[in-house]
Amino acid sequence: MWEEPQGGPPVWWTRDLTIGDEGDDVRIVQRKVDAPVTGTYDDDTAARVRGVQRRMGKKQNGVVDAEVAEKLGDKATKGQVPDWFSETCGHGCACPAVAQVRILLGQPNLPVYLDHDLSAAVRRFQSANGLKVNGTVDEATAVALADRCAD
Q1: In this structure, are residues 81 and 139 in contact, taking their beta carbons and an 8 Å threshold?
Q2: What is residue 92's DSSP assignment?
Q3: For 6, which of 13, 49, 70, 112 is 20 to 30 Å away at the CA?
Q4: Tens digit of pLDDT for each residue in 75-132?
């Protein structure tokens, strides 16, 4: 299982980010705040960062400093739909995500479809993580699996 860092800025954060900055770190922030990913820190990105700052009870200046970066999370992909997820996967589904879900939930690799046992493991994971409990690997479940489990 992936563990939340014990404090301090995340590994992807190396500088304060503000309007006009460019780079991969800006792309990470844009993904995390659900802004269009352009690689250039723009007004839209700053507005979404101000929303994060408002929820933090922090001055809303739109700058990603160490404290805001820590709130956004250490893992650069935290909160993002994992690459292995492409469609909702329910009972009997044999999509490519099944193998990854089995690995993340510590289930045997066979069968290669979402069977009763894997669906039960998904339901347990959903229940433990405050998700809608239905045994189906939807987008929210995939994101939570990717965030909480080792890659």
Answers
A1: yes
A2: T
A3: 49
A4: 767 777 888 899 999 999 999 899 899 989 988 878 889 999 999 999 999 998 888 9
